[in-house]
Amino acid sequence: MKVTVLGCGYVGLVSGVCFAEFGVNVVCCDLDKEKIDKLMKANVPIYEPGLESLLKKNINENRLSFSYNLGDSIPSSDLIFIAVGTPARRGDGHADLSYVYQAAEDLAPLLEGYTVVVDKSTVPVGTARNVKKIISDLNPDADFDVASNPEFLREGAAISDFMRPDRVVIGVENKRSENLLRELYRPTNLIEAPIISTDLESAELIKYASNAFLATKISFINEMSMICEKTGADIHAVARGMGLDNRIGRKFLHPGPGYGGSCFPKDTKALARIASENGISSRIVETVIEVNEIQKMRMIEKICHAIGENADTKKIAILGLTFKPETDDMRDAPSLTILPELIKRGIKINAHDPKGVEEAKKILPSSVEYFDDIYKSMEGTDAVVLMTEWNVYRNMDMLIVKEKLNTPVFIDLRNVYEPKEMQDYGFDYFSVGR
After folding, report:
1. Does the first or last residue of the chain, that is N or C, have fewer Cβ atoms within 10 Å of its Cβ?
2. Fold (CATH) for 2-198
3. 64-96 pLDDT per residue, tens
4. Which residue among the candidates 29, 228, 263, 304 is catalytic per the annotation?
5. Alpha-carbon distance 137 to 130, whole Å?
6. What CATH code would you report for 265-430?
7. What's the pLDDT tens digit per position in 7-26?
């Protein structure tokens, strides 16, 4: 079996490497020549634990290769995965499908023999049928089917999620294409991962519905954290009491500065847009988006309250810039909303992040000063803000932290530390929902 993956971004690269690990021949294509040249040398352009070693292994075993020429692999491929970006469109929040449709146009004249063209990118309902029409119009004689195979990869745990998935969703129109996809995913049978076969539209909607539901849990617990702060309740006790109900579950009930990343912000907006285009008011999803924005604004006020008056004379240390640990992804990270607003209020920023600094430098205000050493970032500052819960921040020496700060103010937006313990160290400690 031969697979071509169009797009060497996060989803495309992880998918291509893992398909190769399944034992099939994979060619990953991208129009970005510089990116392909780096990948040919086994230089991975993103940080994802385990990805680089797996990529090198499969290159060395001749199952994985890279190309910027689609004609090198598409004619001989059994399956072609479209894994290009679908960013939120400016103005209306709808998914920008221009890259998906361009990929369909590019591959259409190159098809030879029976091929299944698979949407791997997160796309609105109806996209697969549009891809089918584009290909059919450009190549009426092509022997092909379209399918939808949404990804469910958590950044920082993508390899494990791909190799040991909770489920594999495939949207197809016939048994011929279904059988080919089932054969591709046969290695997951070893862990008895369920393969859900459904129609194209349902497969496309499963992805959006899943992410919107998880985002709903995050916004819900963040809203509960507001109530906890006003009533004296402990959000951790509330979350624990809720999560032990099997109907609710413990995951995604962790208060913080709001969700971010490449999926939740984009997908919730896209789902709300899909509902609107079909004459439906998606009130829950719309409120989830609103609550998430409110939570980020609330964190700004929490920080300003903690450092006190004369903000324009203050400097703070920010620990963690990425939207979550174990990734260098800065897309829609809460820090992108919080830090610029703090800077507008005259607050100076020192920042540290284990993997996100290079990306942060491209998009955060130039006044942010970056440090390689955690403790040096705190020297002479008036407070420390724990923004992202990287493991390196979980066991800091609080005596050193206190020594470095001008004033012992610790603002923990991820509730990593215990209030009593921090107070015993002599900190003015601020957290979320406690």
Report:
1. N
2. Rossmann fold (3.40.50)
3. 999 999 998 999 999 999 999 998 876 666 788
4. 263
5. 11
6. 3.40.50.720
7. 999 999 999 999 999 999 99
